[in-house]
Queue: 3 jobs
Job 1
Amino acid sequence: MPYSLRLFDADASDAQRAAAEKLFRGALDEALGHESMVLPVYNAYLRIVATYGEAPDTELLSDAEREIFTQWQAAEAAALAATFGPHRYMGDAMYEIGPA
């Protein structure tokens, strides 16, 4: 399933933003196995966060929820590191993912 991605950075030019989005997208796709997995995993992650909060007690999650939660966090961390470097704090990056 194709998806749209937009990174927000007020200091970046359009060319810099496009290059960063390409890196971010590539890292997400690789971490989750294929671009078709990004939107479903992300949407499931958002449902988990809406139900249990940003930092849920993983013991309260089902095995499937725990897998999705940790899988998305790892993919997001990989995308942020690939795009902004290993010292980038997750809370600093703003992005939007949606259907293409």
Job 2
Amino acid sequence: MGHELLLTLMLVLTAVGLLTGFPVAFVLSGAALLFALIGSMLDVFDLSYISALPNRIYGIMTNDLLLAVPIFVFMGTMLQKAKIAEELLETMAELFGNMRSGLGISVIVVGALLAASTGIVGATVVTMGLISLPVMKKAGYAHSISTGVICASGTLGQIIPPSIVLILLGDQISSAYQSAQMSLNNLSPEPVSVADLFTGALIPGMGLVVFYILWLIVYSKIFPQAIPAVIPKQRDRGLFMHALHVLIPPLLLIIVVLGSILSGVATATESAAVGGVGAIILAFARKQLSLETLRYVCQETAKTTSMVFTILIGAAMFTLVFRGFGGDDIVHNLLSNLPGGVFMAMLLTMLVMFVLGFFLDFIEIIFVVVPIVAPVLLTMGVHPIWLGVMIAINLQTSFLTPPFGFSLFYIRGVAAKHIKTHEIYRGVVPFVLIQLLMLGVLSFVPEMATYLPDYLYDHDYRYSADKTMGVHHDIEENYEVDF
């Protein structure tokens, strides 16, 4: 009983520390180390669990997959400095100018394009906010509509590959899947690759874009005063030629980076390197490359990478102590014994992650929560690719939910003072609901996430008749998956 009390107190202290704004990595590692020492003195914790930390850190250092994180950050920051977003927004606004809600649709389309080329939420939201907000205000858009569209479009980089969220999730889901399979006596499981998650996220990601556009069109019909019609602009051949000139370079970069991963020609790390070189070439072609630009991009990349890996090390300490107190057994028993089986286990997991998204960043949730719950769910027969995509869409809401939604902070920082904070919050509500709707659709149609990976990579996932909530059973032996 003593270890359960200490485990509860550790979780409470961690939550309080995170809410105070203290650096996440030090909250995780500090709280874990403190309660590990207390548990050792009370003879309810074995300090040998902590001795595994150096091996965990060495594993992080030698993980080739995680090397893709700083390179993709470099690529996205370089493209942002090359002013790709500005030209895309201006051109798409002209192309869709004849439509009611055309400005909003152009922001969504550009957000999707930037998601597939940069994947950096902060840079996308800030850039589109600076450029689009004045134009949308001049066109007569309601403040809640314009800010909501910009915030939601900026978060598409979390689900549309290449996404840093999917890369980090790929590492965690792969480890959890191997652990789950080994506990089921499958001693040689094939790891879940980032290419699997990238492919699995394509249809749901594009589905979100379609839902966003459909909602904007429907809303403009119901409340035309909130999205006034824009005076039609004269189109000519020069506009379409300019659009091609602006669109082709980033599209080519997207095709090269994603195509090399999905086709199996290159790993995620190798394609990230190609993307980084491509971003430098684009910046040079647009005469935006300089020593000052390189210095800025490298500094921003170093800051972001340091944050990610420091949190990862802190989370490794936290999970070790959590397991030392028997936390993984408690979670396993809780999820396994829920009435409703896998359905309720997944529902509870998604609900907890959604609530945590109000207060925590996606990185903390990936590194702390996923290693605890994913092995249990995968042991229960949940499809690993479907689970990863479901978590990614769920984590996307964390950027839009107050009080700590980062997209809300970004847009508040660049929005004019006459745009009220409550208008920004009201504007993102429909898009949070759309993301939850996508979670619901994906729950009952798991093939949206699993069909492409199974088809492209010839995975032999053999389902039983029960495919609800992404559960799969091997025909010969339950919960064992053949690739």
Job 3
Amino acid sequence: MESHAKARFLTVAEVAELMRVSTMTVYRLIKAGDMAAVRVGKSYRVREDDVDRYLSSRYNAAG
């Protein structure tokens, strides 16, 4: 398991690109509590692990 010290944090734009969705979609997921994020000033950072976890849960739910 990856520790918090080694966790890679992505910007909302990077998460959107990774998921092939708009940044607004990522903001909606964060606000809805569907994706964990850390607030840094006026922007958010999302752990790469949390993106993977979200996608895995959605994939399993859809499958």
